[in-house]
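Entries read chain and fold; for instance:
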Amino acid sequence: QVQLVESGGGLVQAGGSLRLSCAASGVVAEFATMAWYRQDPGNQRESVARIGHDSEYYEDFVKGRFTISRDNARNTVYMQMNNLKPEDTGVYYCNLYSTTVWGQGTQVTVTS
């Protein structure tokens, strides 16, 4: 059974930084494409970034600010979020890409 557990969310002022973690079990993250999505109230869940075996993808609205990475020894995927903006507020979810496997989410709140 695949499980994903996110952590690292919190409350931060605009311009600040957070690092999200997604600890995976039941799947070898090194050989899977892992993704981050986010959702705020009233909006659909949207893609943020994903990391494959040898490539990364970022949505335009986070390029240059967010960095996705992976620690194979810890079977964990990270997302470093810098220069956060109020519009980055939402619940961030880790996903085994193109599957229905999701974590429980971690709240990120950015104040102006």
Observations:
- Strands lie at 3-7, 10-13, 18-25, 34-39, 46-51, 56-58, 66-71, 76-81, 90-96, 106-111.
- DSSP finds no helices and ten strands in the chain.
- The two ends are 40 Å apart (CA to CA).
